[in-house]
Amino acid sequence: MCILPGFSVAEGVLLNQEVFRMNKFPVQLVVSDIDDTLIHKEDHLNEKIIQTIEELKRRGIQFTLATGRMPYRAESYAGDAKLTVPFIANNGSILYDRGRMIWCKMLYAKIIQEITQRYMERNPQFTVIFSFTDRECPLVRTEWIRKRLGKYKGYDQTLGNTPDVWNQTVHKIYVLDDARSGIIGAFADELEYYRNEISFFQYGEFSIEIVAGGCSKASGLTRLLEYLSIPADCVMAVGDHTNDIELIKKAGIGVAVANADSQLKAAADYVTAGERDLGVKEAIEKFVLSE
User: Fold this and answer.
1) How many CA atoms within 13 Å lie on the side-chain side of 275?
2) Torsion of CA 111, 112, 113, 119, to 10 degrees
3) pTM, whole model, 2 decimals?
4) What GO cellular component entries does it have (predicted)?
5) What are the φ and ψ backbone dihedral angles of 233, each rounded to 5 degrees?
6) Most buried of 86, 87, 128, 268 (most Cβ within 10 A)?
7) How crowded is the C-beta side of 288, counted as CA atoms within 13 Å?
């Protein structure tokens, strides 16, 4: 991470413009998380952030996304932004470019079969979902799944909890506890044993996303930058949650939006005054378009 001199980590505090102009690493690429960074619960990007992205492109600066979502659930936002470069999906295990997967690393489900089945047996509402290229399917239809039938592609296709189901590769295993009873934290503690074979990202006491080992948004950014021949110092990355920490640390300028997790704010070079897309717009205008 390129820490610029004269910088103070505080909400809405800007880098000294003279110091910023002296930075020898001008931004060539802006990377943003989607959920709670570019959007709240909207299905499309706000028109104002779209206009800001278009202005970046007019100046020859690329824009892309880094998300925990599967590509098919991020394509509407990629379309709104009219991306011309790949985006990072599924917490770094996929690079996706305008309808095609240009790189991916799969997770062998059997690695965590024993521990996951044990939690399912003890907790009937412990929901487990396997992510495939074009759908996400639950193993068992819990109450949380029943309430969302028809909302997400694949939720009506129950896989079952059999050896054959576990003996396959998937893009992601998503587990959640709608009751937030504390079992997610306990499950995460036990997952640490498999750290050499998996990567996982915890979202409070609600859920965990598990992907192939060595994958993260930061590793996805590394692969993307190799593909684009852009140095990390020439990247500005924006996020809101703990799965964005390594991403913003890798970038030349790491930004946390105002509504971000406190851990991400502590890791950021800059914390915006605005929340979500207003914060992304603020950071782009101050650190990129002001040049």
Assistant:
1) 7
2) 170
3) 0.91
4) cytosol
5) -65, -15
6) 87
7) 32
